[in-house]
Amino acid sequence: MILLDGKKTSEAIQSEIAADVAEIKKQGGKAPHLAAILVGQDGGSMTYVNNKVLACERVGFDSTLLHYEDTISEEELLAKIEEINQDENIDGLIVQLPLPKHINGNKVLEVMDYKKDVDGFHPVNVGRMVAGLPAYLPATPYGIMQLLERYNIETKGKHCVVIGRSNIVGTPISILMSKCTIPGECTVTICHRNTVDLAMHTRMADILIVAVGKPGMVTADMVKEGAVVIDVGTTRVPDATRERGWRLRGDVDFDNVAPKCSYITPVPGGVGPLTISMLLKNTLRAAKKEVYG
Ligand SMILES: Nc1nc2c(c(=O)[nH]1)N[C@@H](CN(C=O)c1ccc(C(=O)N[C@@H](CCC(=O)O)C(=O)O)cc1)CN2
Ligand SMILES: [Mg+2]
User: Fold this and answer.
1) Which ligand 1 atom is nearest residue 96's CA?
2) CB-based burial, 162-183: b 16+ in 10 Å, e otherwise
3) Which end of the chain is least crowded, N or C, by CB within 10 Å?
């Protein structure tokens, strides 16, 4: 069994990005600039956004963090986004999810300039990804593709089973894995809450990607011998032995599943760190006008 080291891969990608930024600056260009909007005080979201800002500093990007109270109205938030759309200094914009219930996430995405949508969530980027046109790919699926590529994992002709159909992970990764690109060329099955006999499907998976948010839901009996298992779950579960009172758990029962796998991602240290690196990569692509000219 080989552990897919997301931390190491993420560091390698960030070094490549930093070298690219240094070259841009050497040529007299300006640093890529990411703006991040955070609404409210959710602990996980604050950690992720802070980590994004720190990662920007590490690779030499400029960043702007806009943190609003969860009392901000939808109208005010949309107006802020319009402002950033017009700001020529800012290359990429993300709105950290989840948003408070009184704000319509779809409206927020649609008001964003799709050319700055470095999360790849705007319908234009989603549509272009499906059509196989240049687009910003959502960071987590993009990170999974990087892991498969950098570990030279064969995907062509394999059966990939995805559990979860979210717009952030499950749906886009299932599309990317089915495309005629490498990684890709898989036969893909998407499973969700209404799938009958989930284990029957997962046991057929050569590549199993789990993005549900239910700690330990994939048990050893659900996994084929030699499968590649990608665990996207990162749920905070209570743990009195830790100073902070919790630890992260993935969707896969790692201890019992790992011995059956050819490759597996740990949690933490698997897919999560790549989410941040691929956001940086998209921001660099935005600054270089690689996607939209
Ligand atoms: N606007 C967005 N919102 C959300 C996204 C996203 O891509 N764009 N994805 C997730 C959260 N997320 C980034 O935003 C994210 C999740 C996990 C990690 C990560 O590094 N996880 C580490 C552990 C970190 C920890 O100790 O808490 C790991 O798995 O090893 C980074 C980013 C939902 N919202
Ligand atoms: Mg994630």
Assistant:
1) 1
2) bbbbbebbbbbbbbbbbbeeeb
3) C
- Give the residue carrying structure tokens 């790919």: 137
10 lines ligand 1 (CB under 6 A): no
ipTM: 0.95
| 234 assigned binding-site residue | yes
Instruction: Tell me: is residue 249 an annotated ligand-binding position.
Output: no
CB 118 within 8 A of CB 282: yes
Give yes or no: residues 92 and 148 share one domain.
Answer: no
**pLDDT value at position 28?**
98
CATH number of the domain bearing residue 213: 3.40.50.720
- What is the tally of structural domains in the chain? 2
- Indicate which residues carry an active-site annotation: 52, 96, 119
The best mutation among 9, 11, 14, 48 to test binding of ligand 1, ranked by most ligand atoms within 8 Å of the C-beta, falls on: 48
Full residue range of the structural domain in which residue 106 is found: 27-122
Residue 292 lies in a domain: no
pTM: 0.97
Are residue 100 and residue 217 in the same domain, yes or no? no
Residue 82 belongs to domain with CATH number: 3.40.50.10860
